[in-house]
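dumping the sequnces here before i forget
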Amino acid sequence: MSPRLTLAVAGRVLRQLRRDHRTIAMLLVLPCLLITLLWWMFHDLPGDRFDTFGPGLLAMFPFIVMFLVTSVTTLRERSGGTLERLLSMPMGKGDFLLGYALAFGLVAALQSALAVGVSVGLLGLEVQGSVALLVVVAIADAVLGTALGLFVSAFAQTEFQAVQFMPALVIPQILLCGLFVPRAALPDVLEAISNVLPMSYAVDAMESLRAGSDVGDVWSDIAVVAGFAVVALVLGAITLRRRTA
Amino acid sequence: MPAAVDLSALTVVRGGRRVLSELDLTVPTGQVTGLLGPSGCGKSTLLRAIVGVQRITSGTVRVLGAPAGSRELRSRVGYMTQSPSVYADLSVDENLGFFARVLGVGPDAVARVRSAVDLDEFGSQVVGRLSGGQRSRVSLAVALLAEPELLVLDEPTVGLDPVLRVSLWALFARLAQGGTTVLVSSHVMDEAERCDRLLLMRDGRLIADDTPAAIKRAAGVGDVESAFLALVEQEAR
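..and the predicted 3d for all of it:
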């Protein structure tokens, strides 16, 4: 692996994105609009439900969006022949994957900074812990989404199939992450499953930040999410084959 | 001079079908070798095996003295796939610039290959808005970037107007004069005349391996297409 190659890939991915104005607008504006919609939904209700659900949603956006964007772009790269061409050149698999993770991680940082800014600055989201850490959690989620997207793109032949991995892999995580039913209150089997899903830790981290719990807890949750991302990247690297049938 | 490519008993089975069957052949260094045959005869699979991106069933493929696909070959072999493997949402220069960085060659290489494929006026155009022929020339330009010792081109002249085709064949001849080995596939038999040497393929097997003149002489006909037909008939008998 070499920084030159990793940066070349990251730079190219960002350049492709820069030419696609509509996608950029959607990446940056949609999360802000959705979080505003959530705030509005709870507006006439008593209590602080926006504060309860907001951080969880902030954890989900980057994960979902980056999962979708990455699985479709890397599928295009596989089916369009550019991946084969790159792998016949002096390009490391790790460089390819890290380049993608770096590019989309940067986009996610921007996306999360905006969404967190709107939530805390305009919508009055109450966060006891560090707002900057909120963004760090969001970036970790985004990298996880990117890594999983890279991995699943190996198992899809068409873009339709790639998009179907979202209900298969993402929605169960959203349902079981503790946002709808506290994880401890889930049936034992589901709780056990939720314990091995990365999104649970992302939402836990956000919850700790909201409640202002120990910063150490937040970092250990972030470490779990990052660990999942590394595993997904390694699995993704295994699916990149220089020789194919 | 040792051969640039040396295959022995190469067999590729794909999806239960024998695409290449016990193929033995060599590609001489510093010449333009044409790989000709009808669509589906195994040309692309053979080229992919030489580049080292095809999983092979048995046999050996040696390229420039090393096993095909080995690390040291990755910047010494230029490969152009049949469908243009470039990024449709980037400009010509952005594509070339990216692949140049991957290959570790300077920005002057970008200008060199862009004019070699006659796309000087299109540097800032987004590839997706170019015609099919222009797109495949961008893909060809990428293969030329690292000034490879072996150039493997899968149907580079499909969809090009005759003037452009002539200019690309002239480019291949120039490259070969400079010592590059050029292996070009085509299903258009009249392009065969422009090659120093021909490999005629049918159903995953080699039916002729000689100079165009020798192939025509042996078949007693005036053009390569008739020679191909004569060879096929001979086999059937």
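The interface with chain A takes residues 14-15, 51-55, 69, 71, 74-75, 77, 79, 81, 83-90, 94, 98-99, 101-104, 126, 142 of chain B (CB under 8 Å).
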